[in-house]
């Protein structure tokens, strides 16, 4: 999804304003969730991960 069903904010709007519409945006907007995930993963881990829940 590229838009939050809770507040109708789009990813493009977030990029333009720099603000998310609500906390649900992180869950519903794929690009935003991905960006946040990469941000946190980048601080915890060095290198790329496949994203498997059971290790490799
Ligand atoms: Zn929202």
Number of strands: 0
Largest sheet: none
Mean pLDDT: 84
Helix content: 40-55%
Q: Return Rg in Å.
A: 13 Å
Beginning-to-end CA distance, first to last residue = 27 Å
Bound heterogens, unique: zinc ion
Determine the number of helices (DSSP H or I, runs of at least 4 residues).
3
> Would you list the SSEs in sequence order as H and E?
HHH
Rough shape?
A: globular
The chain-level structural class is mainly alpha
**Strand share of the residues?**
under 5%
Residue stretches low in confidence (pLDDT < 50, at least 5 long) are none
Structural features, described:
With 56 residues, this protein is mostly helical. It has helices at residues 11-17, 25-28, 30-44. It has a domain at 11-44. Helices cover 46% and strands 0% of the residues. The mean pLDDT is 84. The site of zinc ion has 8 residues, from loops.
């Amino acid at each position: 999804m590229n838009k939050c069903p809770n507040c109708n904010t789009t990813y493009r709007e977030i990029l333009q304003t720099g603000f998310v519409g609500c906390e649900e945006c992180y869950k519903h907007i794929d690009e935003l969730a991905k960006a946040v995930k990469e941000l946190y993963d980048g601080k915890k881990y060095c290198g790329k991960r496949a994203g498997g829940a059971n290790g490799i």
